[in-house]
Every structure is written in structure tokens, then in C-alpha cells.
Fold:
Amino acid sequence: MSRPSIVRIRLKKGNWEVEIECEESKVKETIESVLSGLSSVPEVKTEISEKPRGALTCRGLIENLWSEGWFFTPKSLGDVHDELARRGYHYDRTAVSHSLTELVRENMLTRQGTQRNYRYVQKKPPLGAS
Structure:
């Protein structure tokens, strides 16, 4: 008695790829069964969104605070550092200070007070603010 020969077939349809092993005599019915099963499965669409990469820098995070209007009232270096830490971003105080100084130079923020006791407040309103 001879064993039925086994056939291996790989099918591709759209995003699907299926590999089938069956007896040679049952190839047609197996393929039809697989194809009908694939067509009855609803297509699932997934959407992957990425966070904007620019917001991950210390400066980008401070700009986000600015755009939220967080600097509407004067804030100290410690206030900014603590707010970033509260949001889960732990930057060194010197990095925060450097970023604040850059934003002062670019006229987004202004500095009030004396050296080692500055308070930062927004100079320009964020876009879209009335």
C-alpha cells in the first residue's frame, strides 16, 4: 500500500501568506477552503502614531511648556526643573538653565530678577492664543 504523497504549498493574497501541507488529492479543496476563510476575515487596520521627535530634548519640552502658556506667570529655574521632572523628564539643572537662556536670547521668554535668582516669563504669546 503506497502512502499518499504530501504536497507543501505557499499562498500569498494581499497581506496574507499561508503555507499548507496536504495530500496531493486534496489540494484543490484545501486551497478553496483557505481562500474562502481568508476572504471572510475582516481586514483590521492599525494606525501607529509617533510622538514628535523634537519634543524629547530639554529645549523642546520647555517650548511645549511655553506653548501651553505655562510661563504666563514668572517661573524660577527650580519651578521649570520640577515641572519637567513631574512630567517624567529628568534633566540636569544646567541643561534646563542653558535651554532657558537660549529661549531668552530668542525672545520667547524674558528674565526678571538678579543673577542666581531669575524668574522666566513668556515674552511672546503662543501661536493661536488670543
User: Anything to note?
Assistant: The two ends are 88 Å apart (CA to CA).
